[in-house]
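Feature request disguised as a bug report, sorry. It would help if multi-protein outputs had a clear separator. Right now it looks like this:
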Amino acid sequence: MRNQQRWLLLLLRHHSLSQPHISRHVINQSQFQVNPSLRSITSSTFQSRASHMIPYQPLTIRKFSTCELPVEHKDSDQISLLTHIFSKQNRTNDEINLDLKSNNVTITYDLVIKALRSFNTAPDEARRFFNWVSENDSERLSSKVYNYMLGILGSNGFVEEFWGMVEIMKSKGYGVSRVTFNRAIERFEKDNLSGDVKKLKELYGCSELADVNSSDEVCSRVCKLIRGNVWGDDVEKELRELNVEFSSELISMVLEKLECEANKGLIFFRWIEESGLFKHDERTFNAMVRVLGREESSEKFWKLVDEMRTAGFEMERETYIRVLDNFVKRKMIKDAVDLYEFAMVGINKPSSQDCTFLLKKIVVSKELDLYLFSKVLRVFTESGNSLTGANLDAILKSLTSVDRFGECNKILKAMEDAGFTPSHIQHSKIAFNLGSGGKDKESNEFMNYIESSGTTPKSKTWTSLIEGYCEAGDLAKASDAFEMMVEKEGPSHAGYALELLVSLHCRKRRAIHAFKLVEKMVNEKELCVWHTTYKLLVGKLLAQRGFEEALKVLHLMRSQDYPPFLDPFIKYLSKTGSADDALAFTAAVTVKKFPSTSVFLNLFEAYFKAGRRSEAQDFLAICPRYIRNHADVLNLFCSMKPQKATATIPAAA
C-alpha cells in the first residue's frame, strides 16, 4: 500500500519549489487505477501536498507557428516529396538539403518510418534516403528504423548488404525483429539461398523465430506488464526481473506505446529514474512530453516541460509540432500560444510560418482574444523577426473565412503596436472588404485609423471603399464616401470613383440623378470625367427617358474636348424620337454655325431603316434649307419613294 501511494506521488515529485508552473499541474487521482482501499489515503496526501504548492506566476525567461500545421505538409504530401527527391541519382548532400528546405520538409522519426514503409519496393530510393538520414540526422536511426531498412534489403534480394547491416546492428546492440526475419527468410527461400537461410536461423539460435532481446520485443513485454496490472510492488519487481538494459530508445518506445494511458506512462517515467535504472535524457523527456501533450488537461504537461528545460534539455521540433497539433485540435489556443512562447526561447525555434499559423488559429477562434494575438506578435518580434504583408494577408483571409472581417481594425492596431505598417495596396483591399461587407462603422474607424497613424488615405483607398459600397449596392454610403474623397483629396483622381457611382445610380434606374451628380462635379469641382463615363451615362439616360439630360451630356463632353457620342442618339430617335427631338439633337452636336450634313444623313437613313418614312418627312420639313436642298439628301429620299406598279398590256392577236 505504501508503495502504491509512493508511486502516485511520483507524479508530483520534485521541482514543486523551483517550478513556477506547479499550480497548473494538479493531478486528478481518479484517473489512476489504484486499489480502492488506498483512495482515502492518496486523496488526503494529495490535498496536503497540493496545499503547499506555489501559485503560478509567469517565468521571466518564458517568452514562449505553420501554415496548416506549421506549414508542414500532410504525411502523404511529404512522402511524395521524399520519393521525388530521393529518386534522383548522384546528388550531393547540399542539393538534397536545399530540396528539403525549399519544400518545407522536416525529417522526424515518424516520417523516417513512414518513408521507409513507402520505399518497400524501391530499394534504391530507400538506400539513398537511409544513408542521407545516417549522415545528417543519425539520432532518428533506432532499432525499428534499422529493422525496416533491413527488411527492405532482405525482401528485395540484396543479400550482401543485408548481412552488412546485420553486423552494424549487432555493434549497436540491436536485434532482428520477427517481421524482418519473416520478410528476409521468405525471399532467401524463394531464391534457394540455403546457406543464407541457415545463417539467418542460426542468428536466432536454434531456429527461434524472434530475438527476445530486440527492442520491439522488450517494449511489448514492458507495455503488457504495465497495462495489465495495478502499479505496485509486484509490477516493479517484474520490471526489474526482465533483466533488460533500459536505453533511451527503449524507454521512448514504451512511452509511445502507452500514449493512450498517459498517467501510467508518467508513473513509469518517474519510476525508471527514481529506481536508478535510467537517468532521463533529452530523448526520453521529449517522448514523455509528446504523450502528455495529447491530454486535454495541460497541468502535468507544463510541469514536465519546465522540468525538462531546468534539466538543460530542449524541445525537439517533432515534439513541438505534435503537441501544437493536439492543442489546436482541442481548441486549447492559450496552451498553443504558451507552447510557441516556450519554443521561441529554445534552440529549435519555430519558423516565421508557425507564427502566421498560430495567428490564423487565434482569429478564427470562437472569440478573438487580442491578448493572445498580441502575445504571439510580441514573442515573434522580440526574437528579431519582422512582420510582413504576407502575415497580414493570411490573417485577413482567415477573418473573412469566419465572416469577422469587421474586426480587422483591432488586428491592425495590434500589428501596428508590433511595428508593422500596412502598404497602400493592403489599405485598399481592407477598405473594399469593409465597404462590400456593409461594415459602415468599421469603415469609418478604418479611415480614421489611417489618418491617426500619420498617413493620409490615398485616393486609391477611397476609391476602393467606394467600390466596396457599390459592390454592396449601398448608394447612400458610396455617395457620402465620394463626397468625402473629393473634399479631402480633390477631384484630380476621382474619375474612376465617379464612374462607379454613376454605374450604381444607373443600375438602380436613377440615371437622371447620376447626370446631376456629373454636372455638379464638372461645373463646381472641375472634375475631369472619363470618356467611358459619359458614354455609359448617355446610353442609360436614353434608356430611362432622360433625352433632355442626355443632350446636356453632349454639351459637357464638348466642354472637356471629347467628341460627341452619336450612335445611341440616332438609334433612339429612329425608333421613338419625334421630329422636334431630332432637330434638338442636331443642334446639340453643332460644332460651329451649322451642324454636319452627315449627321442628318445618318438620321434619315436610320428613320427609313426603322420603317418610319413619315417621321423622316416631318423631320426634313423643319430642317435648315441647305439640308432640304442638299443633293445627297434629295437622292436618299428619291431612292426611298415607293415604286408604282407598271401594268403590262398583252399584244393584240
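(second protein starts here, but nothing in the output says so)
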Amino acid sequence: MKGEGKMVFFKSKMKWVGLLGIFLSVFSLFTHFLLARYTEGGASHYQASITIFSWRPIFENSDLSPNSPLYTRLWGPVRQLQFLHPQANPGGDYAAPILQTTGFVFVRIRGGFHEIRNSICDVVVIARLFNATLVIPEILSTTSSKGISSEFKSFAYLYNEDQFIAALAKDVTIVKTLPKNLKGARRTKKIPMFRVSSSASPYFYLHNVLPVLNKHSVVELVISDGGCLQTLLPPNLEEYQRLRCRVAFHALTFRLEVQELATKILNRLRARRRPFIAYYPGMTRDALAYYGCGELFQDVHTQLIQHRRSWMIKRGIVKGNLSVNSAEQRLNGSCPLMPEEIGILLRAYGYSWDTIIYISGGEVFGGQKKLIPLHGMFENIVDRTFLSTGWELSALYGHEANLVDEYQKTRPFFKEEMRRDSWKTSGPRPRPLPPPPARPKYPYNMEGWWGWVAESDNEPESTVTELRMNAHKLLWEAIDYTICVEADVFVPGFDRDGMGRPNFASLVMGHRLYQSAAFKTYRLDRREVVKLLEETRDHLYEANHTWITSVRRHMRKALVEGLAHDSTKSKPQSFLSHPLPECSCSRRGPTETSFHASSPSTQSQVEASLGVTHPCPAWMKGERISQSRDEREEDLDENDSSSSGFFFRHSVGSHGDGEIPNKEDTQMEDQEELEGAER
C-alpha cells in the first residue's frame, strides 16, 4: 500500500510538471507574438544583422579612402556628365485631364520585365492622347491562372497600384477596374480589340482606334511586342516623351514588399561601407539564339540555342540561316561578353580582387561554370540568394497553393508475387529469363531540364510550375533592377534581348542616366573590346602595360562616348534606354564657363552630342556642381601598382603571376592614360 501511494504521488507530480510545461510554452508563444507585433522595426534590424548567412566578405584593405585619387578614378562621378539633372515636369501650357473622358482603355500585356515596363509607359501616353480613362493594365504573366497567390491582382503583383494612380493624377484618369456594365461585355468578348505593335504611330491611334472608342466607349489593346507606340515622336509631342519619363521613373514603383527586400539587400551590400559593382551578364537563351551565338558554348547548350533559333526562324522572328558563324558574330560585337572577359577588363582598369560584384538578372545560361573564371578574379561575388533568406523571398510570393505534379515521381516497381509467378513459369532450368519489357520513360530519367532535347524535336509546353516560376522571375528582376540603379558602378555584358531590342540592362542604363547621370555606367563597345582581347588572347592573364593602357582608355571613353551609340542604336527602339534630351536639363547656363577647365572644347562637344539645351529651373541651379581639385590629381595614381601588370593578385594565393612594374613605368602608363582622356 505504501508503494502504491508513492506511485500515485509520483504520477500526480508528473501531471503538474506537464501542465507547467504547457503553460510555459503558451506563455512563450504569446510573448513572441507580442514582440513580433509591436517591435516590427527592431525585429527587422535584428533579422538584417543575422541574415548575411554564407557571405563573409574578405577585404585586403579595410580602409578605402574616398579622397584618394584611385578611389576617384574607379568610383567617382563622371565629371563631363555632372551638369545633367532630371527634369520631367510638364510645361506651363500642359492641361490637366478633362473629367468627361472619351471612354475606357483596357490593356493586356504579354512579355518579360522590360517589355512590361515599356508597354505601360506607352499605354499611359495613348490614354492621354485619347483623353480616355485608363484601366489598370493586366499583366498576363501574373494572373491567377499562372499559379500565383490569389492575394494579388495582376498589376499589383509587381507594382504599387495606389502610387501609380496618384502619381499620374494630373496626367491621366486611372481606375482599377471596368464599370459593371462593361465587365459583362468583356466576359462575352463584345469589347472591340486591337492587337498593336511597338511601331504604331499616333496617326494610327487617332484615325483607327479613337473612332471605335468614341462609338463603343471602350477598347481593348493587346500588347505582345514590347510596346504599343513608336519610340520617336514628332517635336510637337515632346510633352508625351516627358510623360513617359514620369511614368517610368516616378509612377511605376514596386509594391512595398519588393521595395523592402531590395532595401535590405542594398543595406547588406553596403554594410561594410564599400562601393560595389552591379553586373548584368545578359546571357539568355533567346538573345544567344537570335544573334547566332550558339557555337560559343559546348555540349547540350549549343543544341538548345540552335533549337530555339530554329523555332524563331519558323515564326519569322529571325530572318537569317540556322547555322551562323558565331566567331564572326562575336567579332562584330553581336554576342554577349563572357563573364571572364568582363572580369579581365575590370581587373585591368584597376578594380582589386576584393571588389564587391553583384550579379543580377538570374541564372546565366550555360550554368555556373561560366562564372568560375570571374570568381577566380574576384573574391566577393554575390547575388540576391546570397543576401536574402528563402523565407524572405517566399514572403514576396504570398500564400500559394501546392501544385500537384503531372507525372509520377517514384520509380515503378514489380510486385513480389508477379516475380515469383514469372519465375515458376520460366521453363526447365537452367534457362535465362527473357529481357524485361521496355519501361515507360518518366521525368526522373531525364538528365536535367534539358533532357527533352534527346527525346523530341519539339520543346514541351510550360507546366503550371514553370509559369509560376516566370511570375517569380518578375519579382527577382524588380529587386535586381532596384539594386542596379542604385549601384556605384554598372557594367552590362549585353544590352539586347531575344527580339533584337534593348533589354533589362538598357532600361537600367536609361534610369541611371535620368536619375544620376554622373554615376559610372560602362557602355562598352563590344566590337572594340573583342578586338582588344584578341590582341593578347594567349596572354590574357599576363598582359603588358601597353595593353592595360589601351583597355583603360577604352573604358574611360565608354563612360561618355557610349551615350552617342545609345542615342542612335537603342533610343529608336526604346525611349527609356536613352531619355535624353527630353527628360533632362542643364544646371549650367549658356554664359557660365565650363568647370572642365583643362578641356573646355571636349566638354562642349559632350553637351552638343547629348543635345540637352534646356536650362534647369532656378531652384535647381542653387546646387553647385562639385569641382575636383585638379584633373591630373583625379586621373593620375602613381602608386597604383596593383592595377597595373600585377592585376590578378588574390588574397589566398596568386591566380596569375604578373610582373610588378616599377614607379617609372607606372607614371608613364598613367601619363598615357591621361593624354588619351584629354584627347
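Even a blank line would do. Unrelated, but nice: The chain has 25 helices and 13 strands.
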